[in-house]
Structure formats: C-alpha cells, structure tokens
Amino acid sequence: MIKKLSIIVLTLILLSTSIFAASLRLDSSSTSPQTINPGDEVELSLRVQNVVTREEVSTASYILELQLKDTLSKENIIIIDGEDNLGKLDTNQYWNSKFKLKVKEGAPSATYEIEVNMKKLIGGSEVSSTTSIISFDVIGNTFFELDSDSRTIGQGETKTFNAVIKNVGGSDAGNVRLSFGNTNNIQIVGTNSFYFSNIDRSNQSEFEITMFASNNVESGTYNFPVTITYDDGSQTQTQLIEAGIIVGGIIDLKVASTQTTPKQIRPGDNYVLLEVNLENAGQDDAKAISATLTSDEFKSSYSDNNLVYAGRVDSSSFTTLNFYIDVPKEINSDIYNLDLKLDYLNFRGDEFTKTLQVQIYIKEKP
Fold first, then answer.
1. Which residues neighbour 271 within 8 Å (Cβ) at sequence distance 6 or greater?
2. What would the mean pLDDT of 265-288 be, rounded to a whole number?
3. In whole angstroms, how far apart are CA 274 and each of 182, 213, 261, 327, 364?
C-alpha cells in the first residue's frame, strides 16, 4: 500500500511538472524597417511555437511581454505596444506576434537588446515563464562636419586651406558632393564643388580650397553656406551647414621693450626683475596668453619655470610680463638671448604658439 501511494505521488509530481513547464520556443524575429535609424518607429515581429506535446496543455494560455533591461536600451528605446495575449495554442502550433517600438532621436549607433518574457498561465495564474533575448542594430543618422588647418585670412590675401570633411554620423555615405556658396567680400578661387565617391562613418576625406579676401573687407567672422548631398543606401539626402572664415585674424605678438631691475646686472645677482613689454601689432585680439621664459644660463628665482599668464592683449595694445631670474656667479660678461614662448588663442578659439627672443646684458664683476 505504501509503495502504491509513493508511485501515485511521484506520478502526480511528474504530471504537475509537465503541465507547468514552460512550453513556448522563440522561433524567429524580424524588424520593419530592417535598417533602423534614430527617430524610427519599429515594428518587431516574433514567431513562437508551442513545443509541449502532452494533451494537458489545452488548459494553458500564453502571453508574450517585452521588457527593457540594460541602461542603454532604457535611455533610447520606448516600448509603445509590448504585450500580446496568445490565448490557447495547440501542440506544435506557431504564432506570429507584432509589437511596436520607438527609437529616440539622437540614439547612438549601437546594438540594443530586448527581453522577451513568454508566460504560461493556467486558470488565469502564471505558472511558469521563459525568457529570450533579441537584439537589433540602430544606425545613427549620417551627418558631416568641416575642419581645416587654419580659419583665418588677412585683408587682400589669397590663401589655400587644407580642409577635411568628416562623417561623424552613424552610417556610411556614398556619392558625397560638397558645394560652397558665396559670401560678401570673400571669393572662392577656382572650384567651389568637391566630390567623394564614399565617406564611411567615422572616416574623413581631405580637400583644398582657395579663398581671396578683398582689401576693404572688415575684420570679423564670415560664414559660407555649404550644401552636402549624399546617398545613405536608400535615397539621396541633403545637409546644409556653414563654414566660418575669420578675416583680419592676424595676431602679431612681439617684444616691444625690456627693462631690468637692477638696470646693471652682474654675475651673482639674484631675483633680477625682467619687465617684458609685449605688443600685439596685429589686426586681431589675442586671448588666454601664457608666456614661458627659458634659458640654459639663467634659472627662475621662485620656481622651476618662469611661467606668466598674461590673459588678453587686444589689437594695437600692450601688456607687461614680469619674470625673476638668478644670475650665476661664474657667468661671463656678454649679451644673452632668452626664449620667450607664447601660447595663445584667437577669438574663435584656434590655438597658436610663437617663440620670441628677450635680450639682457651682463656686466663684468666690479
């Protein structure tokens, strides 16, 4: 009797396990459109199969539910319609479910993952579930940026710029054509249109463009309208941007004069003050100026380097840079040149470096 009872209990356990076991298998998935870009509304199609062969499954119903798990997907994907009630399925029956997703504008190019929960219900209560992960790629929109080795031109100057067009978007581009429009008092010399068979994402192509600025053009920034057309693999696209050029952007920093304290410098003098009057003789303002005085013979009196932050020097203006040096006791009487390295920006933020000479005279020991 005990053996029969054990067999009956074991049979019930096996039967219960068979009934409650998850019975759906994800057979395939697809998206429409197949190529997904930021801002797209996506239809996700899933095909599932009921793989349980026991007759007891006729009492079960099924639900498919989508969930976003990882941070990347949660920040960039919106589930519009993420649940499908399948009802009851026959043994080995297939079912096609459709869901709606929205990819946010500005979503980065990446592979996104969605969790598919396949739930089994008996009597309206969930008894088991299985989970599958599906993934799809989002290809960021193609867009371009322009850059060059310089952005300044002087009045009356003809200048050739070494420029690049960069594909900073999320997809490749073919048949790229770049066309520059006109702006007042600055002319394109030669061709204003450039063609590139393809520029893949994260790549760039180089080109040269020559411009002429008239003698009477005022200092300032001038923007050229630029039209870029390209094929994104499905159709021809157009992007409109601007390319800025700075006229009168010539900065000419020079040493106007130098004074020392004491006026007569001798071997062994310490804490000698060098007052360097720096002039901007150019047509444009210089900002964020840092000046470093270096020499093999003379050392800084207060630190390992003689670095001074001068700030801004406008066109036709001056500023004074103060440095302190120690003079070796064994140095010979002579004229010495010290290097004055200048790092600075123009008003657009382009970086420049220039090295000038500062002269001092060391007298003989008394």
1. 301, 324, 326
2. 91
3. 50, 40, 7, 12, 19
**CA separation for the pair 222, 245 (Å, rounded):** 5
The reported pLDDT for the residue numbered 18 is 38
Left (φ > 0), alpha (ψ -120 to 50) or beta: where does 220 sit?
left
What does the pLDDT average to over 279-290?
Answer: 88
| Cβ 335 vs Cβ 282: under 8 Å | no
The pTM (predicted TM-score) of the whole model is 0.46
For residue 135, give Cα distances in angstroms to 50, 73, 77, 113: 22, 10, 12, 4
- 139 DSSP assignment: -
d(CA 208, CA 150): 12
pLDDT of residue 69: 83
* CA–CA dist 114, 111 (Å, integer): 10
Q: What is the mean pLDDT of the chain?
A: 85
Average pLDDT on 63-89 reads 90
pLDDT single digits (tens) 26-35: 888 899 998 8
State phi, psi for 8 to the nearest 5 degrees: -60, -45
pLDDT (0 to 100) of residue 58: 59
CA 344 to CA 251: how far, in whole Å? 10
